[in-house]
Amino acid sequence: MSDSPLSATEKHAGKPIESLFNALYDQLKAIASRQLAKGARGTLDTTALVHELYLRINTSREMAFEHPAQFFSYAARAMRHLLIDRARAHMRQKAGGDWVRATLTSSADGMPEIASAEQAIALDEALTRLAETDERAAHVVELRYFAGLPPEQIAELLDLTRRTIDRDWRFARAFLHAALE
Amino acid sequence: MSIPPLPLRDLFEGALALAPDERAAYLQLRCADPQQRLAVDRMLAADRSEDERLLDQPFDDLLGRVGEPEIEAPMPPPGTRIGSFTLLDKLGEGGSSVVFRAEREHSGAHQQVALKLLRRGLYAEHERRHFRDERRALAQLRHPGIAHLIEGGVTDAGVPYIALELIDGLPITDHVREHALDLRGRLLLFTAVCYAVDAAHRALIVHRDLKPSNVLVTRDGAVKLLDFGIAKLLDTDGDDATHTHSRAMTPAYAAPEQFNGGPITTATDVYALGILLGELMTGHRRSHGDTRTPSSQISLDTGPGVLPSPPEKTRRQLRGDLDNIVLTATCEEPVRRYASAAMLAADLERHLANQPVVAHPPSVGYRTRKFVARHRGGVAITVAFLLAILAALAIALWQASVARAEAQRSASVRDFLLRVFSAAEPAGPRLAPPSVTDVVRAAIVDANRSTSLDSAVRIELLSTLGRVLGAQGDMDGGVALLDANWKAALKALGPSHPTTSMAALELAQAQTAAGQHGPARILIDALLAQTDRSRDADFGARVLSASARLGVERFEQARALDESQRAMELCEHACTPQTRVVVQLTRGNALAAFQHDEAAIPVIERALALQRTLFDGPHVDIADTLQSLSRAHRRLGHLDAAEGYARESLAIVEASVPDPHVRRTDALDTLRQVLIDSRSLDEAIALGRRIVAMDRATLGPDHPGVATSENTLGYTYAMANQTAPAIEHFNSAIAISERIPDNVRKIAIYRANLGNVVGRSGDSVTGARLVQSAIDALRGLPEPDYGQICSALEKLGSLQRNGGKLDAALATFTESDRLYREKLPDAPKQWRAVTLVALGRTHIDRHEDSDAERRLHEALASVTTPAGILSPERVEARAALADIAHRRGDDATARDLLSQVDRETGGKRPALGTQLQTYIDSLSAAVMPP
Hints:
Oligomer: heterodimer
Strand content of chain A: under 5%
Helix content of chain A: 55-70%
Order of helices and strands of chain A: HHHHHHH
Number of strands of chain B: 9
Largest interface: A-B, 64 and 52 residues
Number of domains of chain A: 1
Structural class of chain B: mainly alpha
Radius of gyration of chain A: 17 Å
Helix content of chain B: 55-70%
Number of helices of chain B: 40
Strand content of chain B: 5-15%
Structural class of chain A: mainly alpha
Radius of gyration of chain B: 36 Å
């Protein structure tokens, strides 16, 4: 998991960034597992997830985000964490490391969970490499793919033009897809 | 990978800018490194590809495919120690947990328990807190028919566990089959189940997942219920009060509300009991939405032992009463089921004793359903409340026969009744009570008529009903009932009986709420003298709180603060959580009432936290507390926090009470005040209009409350410089008030507001005349209200000053200042600041700069708003001082003062009103830059 800094979020003066992120991540995991438990497996609606998270954070007052951009950066990062945590847990289960046997059920389109877990981990690693090459493009991927924000909103949040966001995305998409082949 | 960062993107975008057939040449030229060339080529290929790839699909897809791992926290194998237990063999495995037999040394003996390890780790602190709270509640649940929760906790690895009494028994369905019990035997066994469930309900715990495997019968034939409340314990998303539905349930026995997200109540368990009863009698588990009678579903080829008798005979036995009982228990709408498990059991017992049962035959049910459908809202809640009251009476009767006059026990009648009422409230707008008062009145008649009620129990019930009446807005009705009830208690039980004291306290509280402060004070003082001698700390704390609340109403500052503090101290060790909430809220509200908002907030926040653990979901009482918090924050200028609390409160109220309802008005009004302070006037006006409409609907057109809300709406319009609607609503407030007798004071206040806005809109003569007539009326009152007189004088003086009548204005403000000093020495210092600033500015107009300076400095000294929070008086005083400095040529001082003004107003200039804003702007323009 990359630890590349998000420049927009580092200015936060109050709570240490670490604890803010951890709190957000805890919330996210709780909401996500509830969503998963409610519906069938694999029908997680991440956009709803981010929205619910935003509402919670906004009303909890325990976690203060100075700017929506900061929140969405964190939420996207938390989503990425969630994906990788799950993928790693599956990999561990595959290796037989855990107490409870792994249930390698097939999902709807027939792709075994383990293959998806491997793909998720590969994506995460490629994204970390992309951040070394072009940090902003990687950030755009986080906001668009993981947090589900439309490009217009990303442009607004990062105070960039829509065209710049589109260019970042095209470059990042090609980079990542090439890396995942 | 060691690709130099910039070139890769440059190469990629450079190639993209070219036609596909030119790219190879471009890259040949610009990219020497073969590895990098490969990377760019692959990226270009990926970019060109028409296929939908990973990043083109929603993230949900990938996350969903990866899925949730079975287990987050690694679980220990048998043999490990969990808490004080050692795991032995595995007993079973469910969807959410694994159950082990475990043992420990306990008081020198081996104790074996069923130890449940939850599959799901508790991620967040709030989840762990919820788990702990629930576990504590469950540990207190002791009943011979319920497997006891022995211990629970979270292991170091984050795995939650619970140790339950280990029961050796068979699921009830297997038991009746194995012993081939006849119908009577089955029904008796089942009533024992009902009473165990009911005991838990009275401890305010709902099972949520009743099914045969949780209802065991031991070898001695005793019923033991497993996993009481565990479903809730597992539903760890406890902080999210709006999600009342539970994940942990078993679909076949789950009530409709568990599927559609409705509130989980005791009726949820009644539903499951109904399904179970049907299964015990017919061997067939009813499916959802099935309205056929159980008897009609008995098939002739049912295997031996399954049915209580041969099929034909069982059909005959079930037809009628037992069919109706199952249908009633499994009604689709929770409110139409039995109101308690005990009522279900009682109906079965009536059937066994050949008495008529309460359950309706389907034809009546059908007619009722039709009627309910026609009058949805009114009837549904009436039915709910009638059932609730019947339940309360049934329990009261039971209590009366089992445990006479035992204060502890009868308190549980009261609590249960209150619980039933409050549980009915959050059921959503559709089920809300327009005619609760009628139902309560009917219950009062019932309670008075019932001859079997023990007098102490009757008095407790009537006290509770009186309180409900008051809470529904019928203050006078509540007082009348409680007064009669207290006198009855005096006569029947004597003055020193605890029930009499309680009735007196209820009466005093109702009197306080109804504005009868004198009688309330006499009664409370008597109670205080009495409780000084008693050792009941809980009751003592409640009396002290009631006294402090009355003190707030009567402006008895020292008393209110002292008594609320003493109640807190008394409560430190001995009080129930309910009393603790009351005491904390009283303390917080007393502090807030006397301008100690900063100290009030943490106290109210504690009460809020406690309330959130007491109520299972959103509750109107929580909404009230949120409003207190909003007001305190608003007065401190924390407008964001104030708005947050006000909106949360409104959301709860809107989900809990019908439209219109007084509770909604309170919540709307709290939010409106915040919006006025933050000058979000458009929304404040919109809310004001809703409030007026709601007041008209709930209070009637000619009610003083409607006049007040019309006046506030007019005031909001005036702030927004919308003169015409402001005049319209002030006039409406006056017209309403004129139809109410003895209302001179209110009419005068509204007329002063009207005069002010008329005057400022250009007609200063009419405006001044209206304000003057208001002042005359206020002065003519037997007890003149000097605060309002001063406020009206300030309006009059401003109109005079704006009209250029400086002598008259000076005289008017001087008079206001005199009244503040002579008649209102105890009023907050800040009140006078308005007059002092106005005096200062009038002196400036008259070119009496030294008088002006003196007054303005006095004004600054009397402003108590802390620095950092906008005070319009302070801003205006500084601006006026800058004006004076500028006039004597001291622009440096003027600049300094104006920059202080800028700092104070920050980005909030509009909050000042146009006039003052223009004044500051023109000064800023006039003062020369350095």
